[in-house]
């Protein structure tokens, strides 16, 4: 529909300037719609015409603009022509606009509305990986997750409609020190019976209680660190409990996604990249990029002057990894596995 008006305007310009329509189209663009003020629908850049050699590059550009505008007349397609700084603005006939807007629906093309536009002819198509939703396991689905889920699904649908091969990924927060705290808390306060009755509510209650306990108890802090160390070492008892937390959560989340009409091609998670994180660490060490801070943590110096004023921490002092370590490993792994042309992260609301 926009292309119809753009080409009609270009055709009139072509007669005036003795040029082809296609030569003028790059200089003729749609104007964004503003809620609080009326604006033109299309604008012609005289600067673009000068660069492309359609108009002389010397002389007063505003005078050129006004002279060209004076040669153009409103018609059945364009109802108003105005001049801006180096621009000619065109406002299209509103009755014709409504007619053209509804035309595809009368032809039964409603589901493909806007997708056959020539504006998409030059759009690059390929494989797009969209990571969205990405809640933490053992926690209830909240409004922040809903925002990421809806926006991410919209982006995935849009990319798919434009002809891209879309991979929809849910990258679960299923690793990290918080699961050390949850595991230690469950060993102290948890109940398998309550876990079966209302799993996410019980895990939430356990985590809150463990968090409060850790505020004043060194024993709980130590137990949390030890449980996470056991996870990183893949010790069977800790892994079994963690796996149960993960499976319960995914099952609960899938009910929500089904109600929202949303699906994922891949359920991934931080835990998938334990081996790869060590490869990332070794690669950084081999390039002498990983340094040990005074606190004993493994860091990469990002400061321009290499004075450690801006660092990224990749390892805790006990050698365990952080979210960013796993995220780097995940990005490398995805590129190798899916060979995507673009990867889009849809973050949670903060």
Automatic annotation (TrEMBL):
Entry keyword annotation includes Protein transport: no
InterPro entries associated with the record: aa-tRNA-synth_I_CS (IPR001412), Arg-tRNA-ligase (IPR001278), Arg-tRNA-synth_N_sf (IPR036695), ArgRS_core (IPR035684), Rossmann-like_a/b/a_fold (IPR014729)
Pfam families in alphabetical order: tRNA-synt_1d
Keyword set, alphabetical order: Aminoacyl-tRNA synthetase, ATP-binding, Ligase, Nucleotide-binding, Protein biosynthesis
UniProt domain Arginyl-tRNA synthetase catalytic core: residue ranges: 121-347
Domain of life the protein comes from: Eukaryota
Keyword Cytoplasm attributed: no
Function, as annotated: Catalyzes the attachment of arginine to tRNA(Arg) in a two-step reaction: arginine is first activated by ATP to form Arg-AMP and then transferred to the acceptor end of tRNA(Arg).
Similarity section: Belongs to the class-I aminoacyl-tRNA synthetase family.
Protein name per its UniProtKB record: Probable arginine--tRNA ligase, mitochondrial
């Amino acid at each position: 529909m926009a292309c119809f008006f753009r080409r009609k305007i270009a055709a009139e310009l072509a007669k005036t300037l003795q040029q082809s329509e296609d030569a003028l189209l790059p200089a003729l663009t749609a104007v964004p719609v503003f809620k609080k003020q009326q604006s033109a629908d299309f604008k012609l850049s005289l600067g673009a015409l000068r660069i492309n050699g359609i108009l002389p590059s010397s002389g007063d550009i505003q005078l050129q603009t006004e002279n060209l505008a004076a040669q153009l007349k409103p018609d059945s397609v364009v109802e108003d022509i105005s001049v801006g700084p180096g621009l000619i603005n065109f406002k299209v006939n509103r009755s014709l606009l409504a007619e053209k807007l509804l035309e595809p629906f009368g032809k039964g093309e409603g589901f493909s509305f806007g997708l056959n536009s020539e504006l998409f002819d030059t759009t690059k198509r390929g494989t797009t990986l969209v990571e969205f939703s990405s809640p933490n396991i053992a926690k209830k689905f909240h409004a922040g997750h809903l925002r990421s889920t809806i926006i991410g699904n919209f982006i995935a649908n849009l990319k798919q409609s434009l002809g891209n091969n879309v991979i929809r990924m849910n990258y679960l927060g299923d690793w990290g020190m918080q699961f050390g705290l949850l595991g230690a808390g469950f060993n102290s306060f948890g109940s398998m019976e309550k876990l079966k009755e209302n799993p996410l509510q019980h895990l939430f209650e356990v985590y809150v209680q463990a968090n409060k306990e850790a505020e004043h108890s060194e024993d709980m802090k130590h137990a949390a660190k030890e449980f996470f160390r056991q996870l990183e070492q893949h010790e069977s008892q800790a892994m079994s409990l963690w796996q149960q937390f993960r499976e319960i959560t995914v099952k609960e989340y899938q009910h929500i996604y089904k109600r929202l009409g949303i699906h994922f091609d891949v359920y991934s998670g931080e835990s998938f990249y334990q081996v790869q994180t060590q490869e990332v660490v070794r690669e950084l060490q081999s390039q002498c990029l990983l340094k040990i801070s005074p606190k004993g943590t493994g860091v990469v110096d990002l400061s321009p002057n290499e004075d450690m004023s801006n660092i990224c921490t990749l390892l805790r002092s006990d050698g365990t990894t952080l979210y960013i370590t796993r995220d780097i490993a995940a990005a490398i792994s995805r590129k190798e596995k899916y060979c995507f042309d673009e990867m889009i992260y849809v973050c949670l609301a903060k």
